[in-house]
């Protein structure tokens, strides 16, 4: 076993190492939730900078991403669907691949 005391130079008295308190599972879970919330908010903020005025779509995409689901973005040209997905891929370090509707799909 290791002795948790050390002597400082010039000191005759041993000094105890500061004890670290064990982290409770509830505390760890709370910290993880807070960190996940911070990351989601940072991602949301970056996506809102890239795609203006599509906050509801951004929320839906993030919800699906966090929940491990799938998203099909539909809409007329010019709504920012491709821009949103490119920005999301860039933010999370993924590759972007586009599938455009064709009759054989």
TrEMBL record:
Region annotated Disordered, chain positions: 1-39
Domain of life: Bacteria
Biased composition (Basic and acidic residues): 1-10
A Pfam family: AAA_3
Composition skew (Low complexity), residue ranges: 11-39
GO molecular function terms noted in the UniProt entry: ATP binding; ATP hydrolysis activity
Residues in ATPase AAA-3 domain copies: 70-105
Gene3D superfamilies: P-loop containing nucleotide triphosphate hydrolases
Name assigned to this protein: MoxR protein
Biological source species: Pseudomonas syringae pv. actinidiae ICMP 19096
Phylogenetic classification of the source organism: Bacteria, Pseudomonadati, Pseudomonadota, Gammaproteobacteria, Pseudomonadales
